[in-house]
Amino acid sequence: MKAKYQKVEDFFIEKINKGILKAGDKLPPEITISAKYGYSRMTVNKAMKDLEKQGYVTRIAGRGTFVKEKSVLRLLTDNISFSDIIKQQRMTPGSTLISYNLLPSSKVPSATEFETPINKFHHTVRLRTGDDKPIAITEDYLNADLITNIDFNLLTTSLYSYLKKLKLPVIQNFVEIKAVRATKEQQKALNLDVDFLLMTLANADTITASNQRVPLGVFVSYYNPDFYTYRFNEAQQ
């Protein structure tokens, strides 16, 4: 049986998910919710705090509790696909291929850090969305010596799923995160009100069918900072 505060959470989560409560809408005061459902102020307050932690609402001192624009929260320890993260946030993921070309390793960031030299990379640029809202632009550089042919139809969904079909697990060597200046093209594609992005760069290996560890590629993502947040969970140190 669910606790009382969870019932309060479920009530508002359902209204938010159904669109009855929209981004920017103000929730009733805690004292009003308490009187309506017969729960203590402490129970309602805990529910509001949990809704804020889950990203459903934002609480502003002196003003009240408001429904928050949907955003994506990712732990630094996560090693799952963008699509799966979007699904976890109760949104529908989308992917549109913007461009593709074949690049020499000299044009690929951090390619020189692979122990095994790579001649060429498949370079794809994709717009990633959640509920049709632009959230990120991803640039993937896949080892063309390893993946000789690339199926563009599969890249309209999840790259991780594509690599899984090829039986190539992703083994991250390192991940860098930093803020960078957005180009005019990125600002336009992501509908940015700011001129900077949250950038991640991951250098990854894989294990082949012959049980050899070889370079897989480099994965660069540019996120709209208003809709994407990284969090470090101390419990996972």
From TrEMBL:
Keywords: DNA-binding, Transcription, Transcription regulation
Record carries keyword Transcription: yes
InterPro entries (UniProt xref): Bact_HTH_transcr_reg, Chorismate_lyase_/UTRA_dom_sf, Tscrpt_reg_HTH_GntR, UTRA, WH-like_DNA-bd_sf, WH_DNA-bd_sf
Highest taxon listed in the record's lineage: Bacteria
Ranges for domain HTH gntR-type: 2-70
Pfam families: GntR (PF00392), UTRA (PF07702)
PANTHER family named among the record's database cross-references: GNTR-FAMILY TRANSCRIPTIONAL REGULATOR, MANNOSYL-D-GLYCERATE TRANSPORT/METABOLISM SYSTEM REPRESSOR MNGR-RELATED
Record protein name field: GntR family transcriptional regulator
Organism of this sequence: Lactobacillus panisapium
